[in-house]
Amino acid sequence: MTLGLEQARAPRSERLWFWRCAHWGALVLALSECRTPPPVTRTPADPPSSRELVPDDALDDADAREPAPRTDAAPQHAHASPADYSREQRELAERYGRRRSQGVLKGEASYYGASFAGRKTASGEVFEPRRFTAAHRTLPFGTVLRVTRLDTRATVYVRVNDRGPYGKKGRILDLSTAAAEELGMLRRGVADVRADIVERGVAPAKKSHVHRH
After folding, report:
1. Residue 180 maps to which CATH number?
2. Is residue 131 part of a domain?
3. In 10 A of CB 173, how many CB atoms?
4. How many structural domains comprise the chain?
5. Are strands 133-135 and 191-199 parallel, antiparallel or unpaired?
6. How far apart are CA 173 and CA 135, in angstroms?
7. Is position 152 within any domain?
């Protein structure tokens, strides 16, 4: 009350100065109270009800229901190693190495390879490039030849099971890939050879025609 009377009696300039000081004091006090409060440490949220702990026996039942990983998977099939027909050549050489020639053929030999594998030959056999076989135009199937390359004297024994070669005069034999490799002619493709007949195959019997009256 006394302060109010003194302010009323004071000159106007003093009263104005007083109210300005009071205004600025209140403003400073308000700003000091509005400072940012320290961060509040938050506790992690409770897990949802779907993640509540379950008894151990319930977990065991759940594990029992899950299918166990298969350990009996079929092993991968290993690639079968190709058949080795080198024994066939050794047997032919041992059997016919000392046989005298029953006839001689001279001319050029070629060979046919993997692209014909699996096809039927004229004799009905399936062509296998790794076997020691040959094609001739007229010799009976099963005829065994001792084929010698003239420039290197390399020799191989082959069995006739197909017909050919056709188209080029002077070419007398088509050899399998294995026989051509034995003579060392794979890169060149052809070679001049001498073919000795060491065993003649049996020609198929000709069908007799029965004349009906």
Report:
1. 2.40.40.10
2. yes
3. 26
4. 1
5. unpaired
6. 6
7. yes
